[in-house]
Design a protein that fits this description.
The chain has 293 residues and is an alpha/beta fold. It contains eight helices and ten strands. The strands form two sheets. A six-stranded mixed sheet has the order 1-2-10-7-8-9.
Length: 293
C-alpha cells in the first residue's frame, strides 16, 4: 500500500444542530494524505497520464495552481519520482510554498494581480512552447478532474448517508468537485438538488474559489447542474471558519464558506432534508493568514 491508496473514503461528519429539521453533514477532505480534497483529482490526472504514456520519466509535470492541487501534485511526484513544476501567483501564502519546497517542487511565480488566471495562462504558454519537456495535465480542462469525484466523492456521500442525501452544496475553483459529485448524485437520484457556492464578488479572500462571472471558465463547468446558487462574502466565511475551529474542526476558509452555504441552504428547507458539503482543506495551510490574528 502507498500514499496513492490512502486517498478518499473520508469520514462524513455532522455539522451543527438541525435547522428546522434539516441535517447538515460535511466530508472531512482535509484528512486526505496531502491535506486537501485536491488529492483525488491530482491522483486521477497523474495516473491517467502514466497510463496513456503522456507522463514519462523524461518529462516534468507542469500545471497552474493556487496551492492545494500543487501540493497534491508535489506529494505524488515525490512518491513516484517525477519532477513537478508549478505556476502559482506570487502572493500565495508561505505555508503552501514551504510545503512545495519540502517536496522539491519548482515554483514559477506569476503576477499576483492576475490571480489564478495569470498562473493558468503562464502554464498554458510554457506547455505549448515545450511539449517535449512537460506533461501538462491542465486541471481546469482535464475530465479526470471531475471524474475523480463522479467515481469517488459522490458514491461515498451516497453510501454514507444511507442513500438519504437530498442536497449537495460546494464552492468552485476548477469546478471539478461540484461537477463530478453533482452529476453522479443526480444520476443516482434525480430529485437531489445540487447548489454551487460562489464568492460574492470578484475581489474576495476565499482561497481556491472563483467568481465564475469574471474568470476564465473551466472546460467542464456545467450550469445545467445548478439548482440555484449561494453567494458568500469573505467576512462571513472567515467568521464561520473561526466557529468551526471552536467546534474542533481546524479547516481553511473555503471550508468555512462551504459550511456557511450549507447552513444558509438548510434554513430554507423542510424537515428530513439531508444537506452535504465538503471541508476542502486543513487550517494549517493558513497559519500566517490574518484570519487567526
Amino acid at each position: 500500500m502507498t500514499i496513492l491508496d490512502s486517498v478518499g473514503n473520508t469520514p462524513l461528519l455532522p455539522l451543527f444542530e438541525e435547522r428546522d429539521g434539516a441535517r447538515i453533514f460535511a466530508k472531512a477532505e482535509f484528512l486526505n494524505p496531502s491535506g486537501s480534497i485536491k488529492d483525488r483529482a491530482a491522483r486521477a490526472m497523474i495516473l491517467e497520464g502514466i497510463r496513456t504514456g503522456k507522463l514519462t520519466e523524461e518529462k516534468a509535470l507542469l500545471d497552474a495552481t493556487s496551492g492545494n492541487t500543487g501540493v497534491a501534485y508535489a506529494m505524488f511526484g515525490a512518491v513516484l519520482g517525477y519532477r513537478v513544476v508549478l505556476c502559482m501567483p506570487a502572493n500565495a501564502n508561505r505555508e503552501r510554498k514551504r510545503v512545495l519546497k519540502a517536496y522539491h517542487a519548482e515554483i514559477i511565480a506569476t503576477n499576483p494581480l492576475e490571480s489564478s488566471d495569470g498562473a493558468l495562462l503562464t502554464a498554458r504558454k510554457l506547455a505549448a512552447e515545450n511539449p517535449d519537456r512537460y506533461f501538462y495535465p491542465d486541471q481546469y480542462n482535464n475530465d479526470e478532474n471531475w471524474r475523480a469525484h463522479y467515481h469517488g466523492t459522490a458514491l461515498e456521500i451516497w453510501e454514507q448517508t444511507g442513500h438519504k442525501v437530498t442536497h449537495f452544496v460546494a464552492g468552485m475553483g476548477t469546478s471539478g468537485t461540484f461537477t463530478g459529485t453533482a452529476r453522479r448524485l443526480k444520476e443516482l437520484n434525480p430529485a437531489i438538488q445540487t447548489v454551487p457556492m460562489q464568492p460574492a464578488s470578484p475581489l474576495h479572500g476565499l482561497e481556491g474559489m472563483k467568481h465564475m462571472a469574471t474568470t476564465i471558465l473551466p472546460g467542464f463547468y456545467d450550469t445545467a447542474l445548478f439548482d440555484g446558487q449561494i453567494d458568500v462574502t469573505t467576512e462571513e466565511a472567515r467568521a464561520m471558519t473561526r466557529e468551526l475551529a471552536r467546534r474542533g474542526l481546524f479547516v481553511g476558509i473555503s471550508s468555512g464558506a462551504n459550511a456557511l452555504a450549507a447552513v444558509k441552504l438548510a434554513e430554507t428547507l423542510s424537515t428530513d432534508a439531508v444537506v452535504v458539503t465538503v471541508l476542502c482543506d486543513s487550517g494549517f495551510r493558513y497559519l500566517s493568514d490574518e484570519l487567526w490574528d
